[in-house]
């Protein structure tokens, strides 16, 4: 499961699952605490209530401390970059969802669901309202690479460089995800 690929589950929607080392509170903190979240995704404050502001401060070029340069295709996404969204659902330690990029009516939405599985935690990430095949490929490969960094951090391992992993995964998702 920890190397499984994101799967399309509906039009414009991909889902990816990871079994993470627990406990649940620890994984929740890596989703919500800006200092912990910056270690695998992005810093920034999230107001944990429906309608609350979700600020993400990305710096993908410095995510692992030994990253290669940003691919030309993603110039401007290496960092630092900022994205503002709105919380659409929040049940502490179980569910967090917020809009992702774009204007409120044009934004996609990412949803994190957590479930205890013994000493581990199942994370189900669903990203919906993706408007094109290219967006689905980019989002699936991005989440796959970011979750790889998270998994390494939770296991106390040094993560692999972000951009080479993202580039490899993007090529794989281009072949895996169906064209419309």
Automatic annotation (TrEMBL):
Domain Activator of Hsp90 ATPase homologue 1/2-like C-terminal, first and last residues per copy: 23-150
Family annotation (InterPro entries): ASHA1/2-like_C (IPR013538), START-like_dom_sf (IPR023393)
CDD domains per the UniProt record, alphabetical: SRPBCC_CalC_Aha1-like_6 (cd08899)
Superkingdom in the source lineage: Bacteria
Record family assignment: Belongs to the AHA1 family.
Protein name: SRPBCC family protein
Organism: Luteimonas endophytica
Taxonomic lineage from the root: Bacteria, Pseudomonadati, Pseudomonadota, Gammaproteobacteria, Lysobacterales
């Amino acid at each position: 499961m920890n190397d499984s690929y994101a799967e399309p589950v509906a039009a414009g929607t991909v889902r990816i699952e990871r079994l993470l080392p627990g406990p649940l509170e620890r994984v929740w903190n890596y989703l919500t605490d800006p200092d912990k979240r910056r270690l695998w995704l992005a810093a920034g404050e999230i107001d944990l209530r429906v309608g609350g502001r979700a600020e993400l401060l990305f710096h993908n070029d410095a995510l692992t401390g030994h990253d290669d340069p940003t691919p030309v295709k993603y110039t401007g996404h290496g960092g630092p970059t900022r994205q503002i969204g709105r919380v659409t659902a929040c049940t502490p330690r179980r569910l967090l969802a917020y809009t992702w990029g774009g204007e409120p009516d044009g934004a996609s939405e990412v949803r994190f669901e957590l479930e205890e599985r013994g000493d581990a935690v199942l994370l189900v990430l669903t990203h919906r309202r993706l408007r094109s095949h290219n967006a689905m490929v980019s989002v699936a490969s991005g989440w796959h690479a970011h979750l790889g960094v998270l998994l390494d951090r939770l296991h106390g391992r040094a993560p692999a460089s972000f951009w080479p992993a993202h580039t490899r995964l993007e090529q794989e998702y281009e072949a895996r995800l169906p064209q419309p």
